[in-house]
Amino acid sequence: MRVGVLCSGGDSPGMNAAIRGATLRGVDVHGFEMVGFVDGWRGFRDGETVPLDRPAVRGLSGVGGVFLGTSRVAPFSSVLDEVDFDAFRARVADYGLDAFMLIGGNGTQTVASILHDHGVQVIGLPKTIDNDLGGTDYTFGFDTAVSIASEAIDRLRTTGDSHRRCMVLEVMGRDAGWIALHAGMAGGAQAILVPEFPESLEQVCEWVTSVRDRGRSAMVVVAEGFRLAGADHAVTRDGLDGFGRPRLGGVAEQLAPLIEAGTGIETRATVLGHVQRGGAPTAFDRVLATRTGIAAADAVLRGEWGTLAGLRGDRIELVPLAEAVGRLKTVPEDRYAEVRLNFG
């Protein structure tokens, strides 16, 4: 069995651990031959590969990023209705591949589901710091991003308290506010603003003022995709991202002066940005990613194609890709409502 490993989309802490887990189980236990594609679909297109074996993945569990590289290069050069899947399968055959392991988020696993529907044998491994992929309770990379954001909250709170300032921290989250929700709860933020539930400026200012009236300094955590009630769209920067979407970012910088004007409290903004993706993964993400890689290799051995190795409770279970993709896993109303009661 010759298996190709490919990473796509943004980098996420734990990807190296997942590759290591899949390789050790696949090569040393099941006797697979495994090959990694450099920079995702770009490597598949250009024929750039590296062999995967025990020496290739030595010491990778605690290393951030992804040593194979990743990219947002699309697997198909045309719209889906016009894709020549016969040519794609012929390209797979040229590599001598029997199956793929695809490591990525919603976009990557949607591609995995499409490939499965067109006769390509594939297993999905769910990674994204946004935790917005269905079929799994947590994606590897999320816990690390939350830990980094929580540390930032702790640091910002001390300087905010020293100057009696309101601090606004912007974290990642285009359509789903999981990082903001979990980091805000962990850091004791007095307001958490997520894309799923717009809030009015008046309400945000009321929360910040109530904190000041208690003799404290407010901490506001906002996801990059949040928009104020009544706004048509989220705050964007110039240019497009790798998927051709407007680049989000800057909502904290827009919100801070509005809060200051509405409350009279000096307010400063911090955009955490790509710091959330960087550095070593947490122990939780290392274990989750390793278990995911092992489960994916076992699924290849059993021929359980078209599935995603997702975390359900404390078990790694194989979930049909069709059930995991198609809609984002967003913060449900009850999860937001339970913390919103404590704002201010």
TrEMBL record:
Enzyme class: transferase
Entry EC no(s): 2.7.1.11
Main subcellular localisation: cytoplasm
MF terms in GO: 6-phosphofructokinase activity; AMP binding; ATP binding; diphosphate-fructose-6-phosphate 1-phosphotransferase activity; fructose-6-phosphate binding; identical protein binding; metal ion binding; monosaccharide binding
GO cellular component term of the entry, any: 6-phosphofructokinase complex
Subunit structure: Homodimer or homotetramer.
Name of the molecule in the record: ATP-dependent 6-phosphofructokinase
